[in-house]
Amino acid sequence: MRFLDLLDERHVLTGQTVDSKQEAIRLLVKHLGEQDLVSDTDLALSLVMERENEYPTGIGGGVAIPHANTWQTDRPVLALGLFDQGLDFGSPEGDRATVIILLLTSAEMTSTHLKLLARISRLAKHDLAARLKDQKDPAKVLEVVEACERDFLDI
User: Fold this and answer.
1) Model-level pTM?
2) What domains are defined for the chain?
């Protein structure tokens, strides 16, 4: 499954400024709720924050993947936010995340959840954040993601 297959312009927020990773996660969950992609935003926020508090989700390369795999859904739910100032998501490299990808899947989707995390991680290692730097148009963000997948993941 391609990462891009789960995204459209409704899933993308650009040029965001917040003071903390908690605010970024809250903003992404709220955005999904406003797009009718998540019905219970309070529960989604609670699940993602519980996971984030257990183990930070900064993966390096300017990317973080806050996630929960206990959400009730029949399809993975994603949001991609660009945060120009970068946020501390506890990356092993100590870098700040400018690309935050929120992922919600159900417990029955463990395999899909892990594959998506791995795919996003591979994109991060191939300069996804650098390629998305200064992008403001959600359509252009999707074009960049598609190019990254094509260039680095043999789709």
Assistant:
1) 0.94
2) 4-150 (3.40.930.10)
